[in-house]
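User: Okay, second chain of the day. Same drill as before: sequence in, structure tokens out.
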Amino acid sequence: MTPETTLVFNIGVGAAVITIITVFLGLLGIIWKGKKEIGEAIKEGIKPFASIANSITEIQTTLKDKLGVSFVHTMVEKGDSPLNPTEYGASLIKDSGLERVLLMFTHLLNIQALP
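Assistant: Same drill. Structure tokens below.
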């Protein structure tokens, strides 16, 4: 047999429980305080990739048109209807000026439809 060193801590159960609870609450407090900072760090970290989203949509559309490769544009349009864009798709429509063009086109169609 190999001799082993045995460590014995003479602390009461109450002190051990209070110590465990204190350490747990301390760690929880540190995590809670850092939650906002961690969230901001993640947002800052993915900010450079936000511009890539437009490129991804363009590449998907080009591949679909040229090669017949089918992609689901879940980033831009909802599954139930292409006339019901996602929040990101609506921002693309508005930022690109397409919304204004569509409104003018609709207005012209309404004028021509009148007797």
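The mean pLDDT is 76.

User: Thanks, on to the next one.
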